Amino acid sequence: MIQDIRQSILFTKYMRLLGWETEKIDSNYIYKRKFPLIGYFAKMPRPNMPIDLDKIKVYKQSNKIFRLKISPLVDQSDQKYQQYQKKFIRSGFKIDHDTFNPTTNYLVDLTPEENEIFNNFSEAKRRAVRRAIKNGVFIKESNDLDSFIKIRQRQYLPVWFLVGGEMKSLWKIFYPQNASILLAYHPKNMNAIAGILLLFYKKQAYYWFASALSSGKKLFAPTLLVWEALKLSKKRGCTIFDFEGIYDERFPKASASWKGFTKFKEGFGVRKIIYLENFYL
Protein backbone atom coordinates (compact mmCIF):
# COMPACT_ATOMS: atom_id res chain seq x y z
CA MET A 1 0.00 0.00 0.00
CA ILE A 2 1.34 3.45 -0.94
CA GLN A 3 1.75 5.76 2.01
CA ASP A 4 2.22 9.48 1.57
CA ILE A 5 5.06 11.18 3.43
CA ARG A 6 2.50 13.29 5.30
CA GLN A 7 1.35 10.13 7.04
CA SER A 8 4.84 9.19 8.24
CA ILE A 9 6.22 9.36 11.77
CA LEU A 10 8.87 11.76 10.46
CA PHE A 11 6.19 14.19 9.32
CA THR A 12 4.48 14.05 12.72
CA LYS A 13 7.76 15.13 14.35
CA TYR A 14 8.04 17.98 11.87
CA MET A 15 4.47 19.11 12.53
CA ARG A 16 5.09 19.09 16.28
CA LEU A 17 8.04 21.43 15.76
CA LEU A 18 5.64 23.78 13.98
CA GLY A 19 3.26 23.71 16.95
CA TRP A 20 0.72 21.12 15.83
CA GLU A 21 -0.63 18.37 18.05
CA THR A 22 -0.64 14.94 16.43
CA GLU A 23 -2.91 11.99 17.04
CA LYS A 24 -3.87 8.85 15.19
CA ILE A 25 -7.30 7.68 14.11
CA ASP A 26 -6.99 4.02 13.19
CA SER A 27 -3.91 3.93 10.91
CA ASN A 28 -3.88 7.60 9.87
CA TYR A 29 -2.40 10.66 11.53
CA ILE A 30 -4.44 13.79 12.13
CA TYR A 31 -2.97 17.18 13.03
CA LYS A 32 -4.69 19.84 15.07
CA ARG A 33 -3.80 23.33 16.25
CA LYS A 34 -5.57 25.49 18.78
CA PHE A 35 -6.75 29.01 18.05
CA PRO A 36 -7.79 31.35 20.88
CA LEU A 37 -11.53 31.57 21.56
CA ILE A 38 -12.68 29.47 18.58
CA GLY A 39 -11.01 26.13 19.34
CA TYR A 40 -9.07 23.75 17.13
CA PHE A 41 -8.46 23.52 13.42
CA ALA A 42 -7.58 19.98 12.27
CA LYS A 43 -6.42 18.33 9.08
CA MET A 44 -5.80 14.79 7.91
CA PRO A 45 -3.48 14.94 4.87
CA ARG A 46 -3.36 12.04 2.43
CA PRO A 47 -4.92 9.28 4.58
CA ASN A 48 -5.28 5.86 3.02
CA MET A 49 -8.82 4.72 2.37
CA PRO A 50 -11.12 3.39 3.61
CA ILE A 51 -11.43 5.50 6.74
CA ASP A 52 -14.16 5.52 9.36
CA LEU A 53 -15.90 8.87 8.77
CA ASP A 54 -18.22 8.41 11.75
CA LYS A 55 -15.19 8.05 14.00
CA ILE A 56 -13.72 11.24 12.53
CA LYS A 57 -16.97 13.11 13.17
CA VAL A 58 -16.94 11.97 16.81
CA TYR A 59 -13.31 13.07 17.10
CA LYS A 60 -14.20 16.51 15.71
CA GLN A 61 -17.03 17.00 18.18
CA SER A 62 -15.17 15.75 21.25
CA ASN A 63 -12.11 17.93 20.54
CA LYS A 64 -14.02 21.18 19.92
CA ILE A 65 -12.73 21.41 16.34
CA PHE A 66 -14.34 24.25 14.39
CA ARG A 67 -13.12 22.94 11.04
CA LEU A 68 -11.62 19.63 9.97
CA LYS A 69 -10.13 18.99 6.52
CA ILE A 70 -9.27 15.73 4.79
CA SER A 71 -7.40 15.15 1.52
CA PRO A 72 -7.81 11.42 0.75
CA LEU A 73 -5.04 9.52 -1.01
CA VAL A 74 -7.33 8.40 -3.83
CA ASP A 75 -6.88 9.11 -7.53
CA GLN A 76 -9.13 8.56 -10.52
CA SER A 77 -7.51 5.22 -11.36
CA ASP A 78 -9.08 3.79 -8.20
CA GLN A 79 -12.24 1.85 -9.05
CA LYS A 80 -13.84 3.16 -5.86
CA TYR A 81 -13.14 6.82 -6.66
CA GLN A 82 -16.77 7.83 -7.15
CA GLN A 83 -17.91 5.58 -4.33
CA TYR A 84 -15.57 7.35 -1.90
CA GLN A 85 -16.68 10.73 -3.19
CA LYS A 86 -20.34 9.88 -2.54
CA LYS A 87 -19.49 8.49 0.89
CA PHE A 88 -17.92 11.76 2.01
CA ILE A 89 -20.86 13.82 0.79
CA ARG A 90 -23.45 11.49 2.35
CA SER A 91 -21.58 11.75 5.66
CA GLY A 92 -21.99 15.54 5.70
CA PHE A 93 -18.57 16.53 4.34
CA LYS A 94 -18.37 19.29 1.75
CA ILE A 95 -15.95 19.70 -1.15
CA ASP A 96 -13.21 22.10 -0.13
CA HIS A 97 -12.58 24.80 -2.72
CA ASP A 98 -9.71 26.20 -0.63
CA THR A 99 -7.56 23.09 -0.78
CA PHE A 100 -4.64 22.48 1.59
CA ASN A 101 -3.08 19.61 -0.38
CA PRO A 102 -2.68 19.56 -4.18
CA THR A 103 -5.60 17.87 -5.92
CA THR A 104 -3.79 17.31 -9.22
CA ASN A 105 -0.21 16.25 -9.69
CA TYR A 106 2.57 15.12 -12.00
CA LEU A 107 4.60 11.97 -11.31
CA VAL A 108 7.72 10.71 -13.09
CA ASP A 109 8.44 6.99 -13.33
CA LEU A 110 12.05 6.43 -12.27
CA THR A 111 12.24 2.73 -13.06
CA PRO A 112 13.57 3.09 -16.66
CA GLU A 113 17.28 3.67 -17.36
CA GLU A 114 18.53 7.27 -17.11
CA ASN A 115 18.79 7.67 -20.88
CA GLU A 116 15.21 6.57 -21.34
CA ILE A 117 13.98 8.96 -18.63
CA PHE A 118 15.80 11.82 -20.37
CA ASN A 119 14.50 10.81 -23.80
CA ASN A 120 10.96 10.94 -22.39
CA PHE A 121 11.43 14.68 -21.83
CA SER A 122 9.96 17.02 -24.39
CA GLU A 123 12.37 18.44 -26.94
CA ALA A 124 12.13 21.82 -25.20
CA LYS A 125 13.20 20.33 -21.85
CA ARG A 126 16.10 18.38 -23.36
CA ARG A 127 17.24 21.54 -25.12
CA ALA A 128 17.00 23.52 -21.86
CA VAL A 129 19.18 20.98 -20.04
CA ARG A 130 21.80 21.21 -22.79
CA ARG A 131 21.66 25.03 -22.75
CA ALA A 132 22.21 25.13 -18.99
CA ILE A 133 25.25 22.89 -19.33
CA LYS A 134 26.53 24.98 -22.25
CA ASN A 135 26.04 28.09 -20.11
CA GLY A 136 28.41 26.56 -17.56
CA VAL A 137 25.80 25.95 -14.86
CA PHE A 138 26.75 23.09 -12.57
CA ILE A 139 24.86 21.29 -9.82
CA LYS A 140 26.06 20.07 -6.43
CA GLU A 141 24.33 18.00 -3.80
CA SER A 142 24.66 19.97 -0.60
CA ASN A 143 23.70 20.32 3.05
CA ASP A 144 23.95 24.11 2.81
CA LEU A 145 20.44 24.96 3.90
CA ASP A 146 21.35 28.60 4.58
CA SER A 147 22.31 29.21 0.93
CA PHE A 148 19.01 27.76 -0.23
CA ILE A 149 17.08 29.85 2.29
CA LYS A 150 18.81 32.99 0.98
CA ILE A 151 17.69 32.18 -2.57
CA ARG A 152 14.10 31.74 -1.40
CA GLN A 153 14.24 34.93 0.67
CA ARG A 154 15.35 36.95 -2.35
CA GLN A 155 12.59 35.39 -4.42
CA TYR A 156 9.93 36.23 -1.83
CA LEU A 157 10.79 39.87 -1.19
CA PRO A 158 9.42 41.88 0.60
CA VAL A 159 8.12 39.10 2.91
CA TRP A 160 11.54 37.42 3.08
CA PHE A 161 11.33 37.17 6.87
CA LEU A 162 8.54 34.58 6.56
CA VAL A 163 10.91 32.19 4.79
CA GLY A 164 13.25 30.01 6.77
CA GLY A 165 11.63 28.75 9.96
CA GLU A 166 9.54 26.06 8.32
CA MET A 167 12.46 24.92 6.18
CA LYS A 168 14.79 24.66 9.18
CA SER A 169 12.25 22.54 11.05
CA LEU A 170 11.83 20.28 8.03
CA TRP A 171 15.59 19.91 7.62
CA LYS A 172 16.09 19.15 11.29
CA ILE A 173 13.73 16.18 11.11
CA PHE A 174 14.41 14.74 7.65
CA TYR A 175 18.14 15.31 7.06
CA PRO A 176 20.30 13.35 6.29
CA GLN A 177 18.51 10.07 5.56
CA ASN A 178 15.34 11.55 4.09
CA ALA A 179 16.30 14.92 2.65
CA SER A 180 18.82 16.52 0.33
CA ILE A 181 19.49 19.86 -1.29
CA LEU A 182 20.66 20.40 -4.84
CA LEU A 183 22.14 23.80 -5.64
CA ALA A 184 22.88 25.28 -9.05
CA TYR A 185 25.91 27.56 -9.29
CA HIS A 186 26.75 30.42 -11.59
CA PRO A 187 29.82 29.59 -13.72
CA LYS A 188 31.45 33.01 -13.22
CA ASN A 189 31.01 34.07 -9.60
CA MET A 190 30.36 30.62 -8.06
CA ASN A 191 27.24 31.85 -6.27
CA ALA A 192 24.18 29.62 -5.84
CA ILE A 193 21.47 30.78 -8.26
CA ALA A 194 18.80 28.10 -7.82
CA GLY A 195 18.01 25.10 -5.66
CA ILE A 196 15.72 22.22 -4.82
CA LEU A 197 15.00 20.66 -1.45
CA LEU A 198 14.05 17.01 -1.92
CA LEU A 199 12.40 14.67 0.55
CA PHE A 200 12.56 10.88 0.31
CA TYR A 201 10.17 8.38 1.81
CA LYS A 202 9.47 4.75 0.92
CA LYS A 203 10.99 4.84 -2.58
CA GLN A 204 9.25 8.09 -3.45
CA ALA A 205 11.02 11.41 -3.98
CA TYR A 206 9.20 14.67 -3.29
CA TYR A 207 9.95 17.99 -5.03
CA TRP A 208 9.23 19.84 -1.80
CA PHE A 209 10.78 23.31 -2.21
CA ALA A 210 12.30 24.90 -5.31
CA SER A 211 13.52 28.43 -5.94
CA ALA A 212 15.59 30.29 -8.49
CA LEU A 213 16.96 33.78 -8.91
CA SER A 214 16.24 35.60 -12.17
CA SER A 215 19.86 35.00 -13.20
CA GLY A 216 19.35 31.27 -12.66
CA LYS A 217 16.21 31.19 -14.75
CA LYS A 218 17.97 32.95 -17.64
CA LEU A 219 20.64 30.23 -17.60
CA PHE A 220 18.02 27.40 -17.49
CA ALA A 221 19.29 26.29 -14.07
CA PRO A 222 15.84 25.10 -12.81
CA THR A 223 15.49 22.60 -15.67
CA LEU A 224 18.99 21.20 -15.12
CA LEU A 225 18.20 20.95 -11.40
CA VAL A 226 15.15 18.80 -12.07
CA TRP A 227 17.18 16.48 -14.30
CA GLU A 228 19.82 16.11 -11.59
CA ALA A 229 17.09 15.62 -8.98
CA LEU A 230 15.60 12.78 -11.02
CA LYS A 231 18.99 11.11 -11.31
CA LEU A 232 19.74 11.53 -7.60
CA SER A 233 16.32 10.18 -6.64
CA LYS A 234 16.85 7.13 -8.84
CA LYS A 235 20.29 6.50 -7.29
CA ARG A 236 18.71 6.64 -3.84
CA GLY A 237 16.39 3.81 -4.83
CA CYS A 238 13.24 5.83 -5.53
CA THR A 239 10.83 4.59 -8.18
CA ILE A 240 8.55 7.65 -8.27
CA PHE A 241 9.32 11.37 -8.43
CA ASP A 242 6.44 13.45 -7.06
CA PHE A 243 6.20 17.02 -8.36
CA GLU A 244 3.91 18.00 -5.43
CA GLY A 245 1.04 19.63 -7.23
CA ILE A 246 -0.10 21.42 -10.37
CA TYR A 247 -2.99 23.62 -11.47
CA ASP A 248 -6.41 22.00 -11.14
CA GLU A 249 -9.20 23.20 -13.44
CA ARG A 250 -11.78 22.05 -10.86
CA PHE A 251 -10.48 24.73 -8.48
CA PRO A 252 -9.35 27.62 -10.68
CA LYS A 253 -9.28 30.19 -7.88
CA ALA A 254 -7.42 28.11 -5.30
CA SER A 255 -4.81 26.86 -7.75
CA ALA A 256 -4.44 29.99 -9.89
CA SER A 257 -0.94 30.64 -8.56
CA TRP A 258 0.11 27.17 -9.74
CA LYS A 259 -0.27 27.92 -13.45
CA GLY A 260 3.35 29.00 -13.85
CA PHE A 261 4.67 26.01 -11.90
CA THR A 262 2.48 23.69 -13.95
CA LYS A 263 3.89 24.95 -17.22
CA PHE A 264 7.42 24.45 -15.93
CA LYS A 265 6.72 20.91 -14.70
CA GLU A 266 5.30 19.85 -18.05
CA GLY A 267 7.61 18.08 -20.42
CA PHE A 268 9.61 15.98 -17.95
CA GLY A 269 7.97 12.74 -19.06
CA VAL A 270 5.26 13.12 -16.45
CA ARG A 271 2.07 11.22 -15.77
CA LYS A 272 -0.89 13.31 -14.63
CA ILE A 273 -2.73 12.25 -11.47
CA ILE A 274 -6.15 13.62 -10.47
CA TYR A 275 -6.94 13.06 -6.82
CA LEU A 276 -10.24 12.96 -5.04
CA GLU A 277 -11.23 16.44 -3.88
CA ASN A 278 -10.28 17.73 -0.45
CA PHE A 279 -13.23 17.74 1.97
CA TYR A 280 -14.11 19.63 5.12
CA LEU A 281 -16.53 19.30 7.98
Question: What tags apply to this protein structure?
Answer:
7-stranded mixed beta sheet; 281 residues; single chain; 2 domains; 6-stranded mixed beta sheet; Aminopeptidase; alpha+beta; 13 strands; 27% strand
Contiguous low-pLDDT stretches (5 residues minimum) are none
Number of strands: 13
For the record, the CATH architecture of the largest domain stands as 3-Layer(aba) Sandwich
Over all CA atoms, what is the radius of gyration?
A: 20 Å
Proportion of strand residues? 25-35%
Order of helices and strands: HEEEHEHEEHHEHHEEEHHEHEE
Widest beta sheet: strand line-up: 7-8-9-10-11-6-12
CATH C-level class of the largest domain is Alpha Beta
The CATH superfamily of the largest domain appears as Gcn5-related N-acetyltransferase (GNAT)
Dominant shape: globular
What is the share of helical residues? 25-40%
Q: What structural class should be given to the helix and strand makeup?
A: alpha+beta
Determine the CATH topology of the largest domain. Aminopeptidase
What does this structure look like?
With 281 residues, this protein is of the alpha+beta class. It has 2 domains: 5-101; 111-238, Aminopeptidase. It contains 10 helices and 13 strands. The radius of gyration is 20 Å and the shape is globular. The two termini are 27 Å apart.
